[in-house]
Design brief:
8 helices, about 350 residues, Alpha-Beta Plaits, two-stranded antiparallel sheet, Multidrug efflux transporter AcrB transmembrane fold
Length: about 350
């Protein structure tokens, strides 16, 4: 199996997909969940009855009519009833507005409209709860998410640098670490874009703290698959470098051999995980569907990068170096130092 033969195709396809994904992530509007956006939550107690469907349809019209600079300011509105209680809850998510004062005014305006709509259903309605989460809290959650992902990437790369510090002397330890962090970043960005692409058509799939947890899980799975391939490469380097010409292999042959020896294991393991996640996605509660969907994308792209991106990049980083065996300096107690 000659995976390296078409390495430039794999690398260029991934590079293009990565750049497009990064561009869309930066410039497209993200579908954020309640803990990463600016939102209000209201609860109303009533005595008689309230038609939830009618309230939701009227609020949807009000949502579209509330504009700032000719743009809609509300991401989405969720209306539901509290179980076993005569209480209706309304959660409203707002888009990013740089002017905090203007955002507060828009929240107050829509809050008043919500009350009027619910009041029209039942005159006994009273406001029982009002929660207003501002821009500061949402920014804190997003900043924490970025820092967490960055720490995970750096820590993993340092671990890889340490784990592969003893290998053939011509191989740079840092090449393993740098390639690992590049492939992991590749998996995160493309998986996130794929998730956001789905959310364009299915708004219920939103980015939240559970999504960040899914990304961290993807990092753990992807690095595990990459380490398996890299470890086999290390083992084969020790086995074939510096041997007699009949048993010796060059770097191209060693990496191809290592991929061939691990590809079946990687695919079978990934398929097992994929089918388990797919089953959960189909049959389990909808509340965790977006978490499982993120893991599905991470499994696909993580497996792909471990086989078709990490190993070819390792070859490109070291192909022009001369093969040699790492030699340890042995201490001879009979040697004397002449002064």
């Amino acid at each position: 199996m000659d995976i390296l033969k078409h390495r430039y195709i794999y690398i260029w396809v991934s590079a293009v997909l990565f750049v497009v994904s990064l561009f869309l992530l930066i410039f497209s509007e993200l579908n954020l969940w309640i803990d990463m956006t600016w939102w209000i939550q209201l609860e109303y107690d009533y005595t008689n009855s309230v038609d939830l469907d009618k309230v939701a349809s009227e609020l949807e019209l009000k949502r579209k009519s509330l504009l700032s600079d000719n743009k809609e300011v509300i991401n989405s509105v969720n209306v539901y009833s509290v179980t076993w209680e005569k209480t209706i809850a309304v959660v409203v998510w707002f888009h990013n507005i740089s002017d905090d004062i203007k955002l507060d005014e828009l929240k107050k305006t829509f809050k008043s409209q919500i009350f009027d709509i619910v009041k029209s259903q039942d005159n006994t309605v009273i406001e029982a709860k009002y929660i207003n989460i501002g821009k500061t809290f949402g920014d804190y959650i997003k900043k924490t998410a970025y820092i967490t992902l960055a720490i995970a990437l750096v820590t993993i790369s340092l671990y890889v640098a340490y784990a592969f510090s003893w290998i053939a002397s011509w191989v740079s330890t840092y090449s393993f670490a740098v390639i690992t962090i590049l492939t992991l970043f590749h998996d995160i960005i493309i998986s996130t874009w794929a998730f956001i692409f789905v959310s364009f058509f299915l708004p219920e799939f939103q980015i939240d703290t559970f999504f960040i947890t899914a990304l961290l899980t993807i990092l753990g799975y992807s690095i595990n698959d990459t380490i398996v391939v890299f470890d086999r490469i290390r083992s084969n380097l020790d086995k074939y470098v510096g041997k007699t010409w009949k048993n010796s292999k060059n770097l191209y042959e060693i990496i191809n051999l290592s991929i061939s020896e691990t590809i079946v294991r990687s695919i079978y393991t990934s398929l097992t995980l994929f089918f388990v996640l797919l089953t959960i996605f189909i049959f389990w509660p909808e509340s965790i569907n977006w978490f499982i969907l993120a893991l599905l994308f991470g499994t696909i792209f993580g497996t792909y990068s471990s086989i078709f991106i990490a190993s070819p990049l390792l070859y490109e980083a070291n192909k022009n170096k001369t093969l040699s065996v790492y030699k340890k300096i042995e201490y001879n107690p009979d040697d004397k130092i002449v002064v």
